[in-house]
Design brief:
By secondary structure, this protein is mainly beta. It has a single domain (2-305), classed as Beta-galactosidase, Chain A, domain 5 (Distorted Sandwich). It is built from 4 helices and 21 strands. The protein has helices at 8-11, 65-68, 130-135, 257-263; strands at 2-3, 15-20, 26-31, 37-41, 47-51, 81-82, 104-105, 120-126, 140-148, 154-162, 168-174, 177-179, 186-189, 195-198, 204-207, 219-223, 229-234, 239-246, 250-255, 275-289, 294-305. The longest helix has 7 residues, at 257-263. It starts with a strand and ends with a strand. The structure holds 6-O-phosphono-beta-D-glucopyranose. Residues 94-95, 199, 220, 252, 254, 277 line the site of 6-O-phosphono-beta-D-glucopyranose.
């Protein structure tokens, strides 16, 4: 492994190391001084792993990843980035092309006010290719910063700039696959009383009635205009994921359950029990950018012990 930044031992700083996956694509391992880590791939700008200081994995990855994954498909797990659309519409591929593209290192990222130092971080950049422009004729610069803070929080900041002469609109999601003990032991708090679009009922709009969201069958919903903190409580593993978001009004919740899992080729039949997608997203109303404008969407994930 080649070390990109100075090593923690020599000058007490967080580190970023570069390695290659089996397809020869660069991956970056961010490590803080307490030993937490996160792995980010140039393929899709996708976070593939996020681990506590005890080496416990917090993100789900399908066991079929090694056997099946090969670009241009994204890995089933981690945090794929859905842009410029969420879902399937028109000639664009499902969830957009960003997750299927090779990103580059952003050599000169513009400053990010308020993002303090002391984190292990990597800045990536995606610009549209000629082929992308045929399907989605809008010129943009997508800058992604992934940081691992001293306390182990994983922070993702996306900045999308319109470098066209015309406005364009897009939707977006951090499609986060949390690793959970058992789907029947988990509940999501922070979505009570919200309206949601149900993808299992042709996007019909309903209102959440329960105190917390629990799971007994397939769920595929977009909760609209949620507050900026949502919690995923895992009773069996006695831990709670906290999701803090900015610029991302909506929350997508997805678990394919038993029947759909069998039709997802890169997911094991029983693996739906150990994954839950809860995404900070901008899906309900598309974001529109005028020429020269920039949008920013920030996600901060942390994990705390719970009873
Ligand atoms: C969810 C969608 O968020 O993502 C589902 O609402 C979809 O309908 C799922 O099946 C996974 O999508 P993909 O393209 O990664 O298989």
């Amino acid at each position: 492994m080649e070390t990109v930044h100075s090593s923690a031992e020599s000058d007490n700083r967080p580190t970023v190391e570069v390695t290659k996956d089996k397809n020869g694509i660069d991956q970056f391992v961010l490590r803080n001084l307490r030993g937490s880590s996160a792995t980010v791939s140039l393929h899709g700008g996708q976070v593939l792993s996020w681990k506590t200081e005890r080496g416990e994995e917090l993100l789900f990855s399908s066991s079929k990843v090694n056997a099946i994954f090969s670009p241009p498909k994204p890995v089933r797990g981690g945090i794929p980035i859905c842009f410029p659309q969420f879902g399937a519409r028109g000639s664009l591929e499902q969830h957009g092309f960003a997750r299927n593209k090779l990103w580059v290192i952003d050599q000169n990222p513009p400053p990010l006010p308020g993002d303090s130092n002391g984190k292990a971080c990597i800045d990536l950049l995606l610009k549209p290719s000629e082929d992308d422009m045929k399907l989605w004729p809008h010129s943009f610069e997508f800058r992604l910063r992934v940081s691992l803070a001293a306390d182990g929080h994983l922070i993702m900041i996306s900045r999308i700039r319109n470098v066209n002469s015309k406005p364009f609109s897009f939707s977006f999601a951090y499609h986060t696959y949390f690793s959970i003990s058992d789907i029947s032991e988990v509940r999501v708090e922070g979505l009570e009383t919200l309206d949601y679009l149900d993808n299992l009922c042709q996007k019909e709009r309903f209102t959440e009635q329960g105190d917390a969201l629990t799971f007994e069958s397939e769920v595929d919903r977009v909760y609209l205009d949620s507050c900026d903190v949502v919690a995923v409580l895992d009773h069996e593993r006695k831990r709670t994921f906290m999701i803090r978001k900015e610029g991302l009004p909506d929350v997508v919740v997805w678990n394919p359950w038993e029947k759909k899992s069998k039709s997802v080729v890169d997911l094991g039949d029983e693996e739906y029990k150990h994954m839950l997608c809860v995404d900070g997203a901008a899906v309900g109303k598309p974001i529109t950018l005028k020429p020269g404008e920039e949008w920013r969407g920030r996600l901060e994930l942390s994990v705390v012990p719970s009873t």
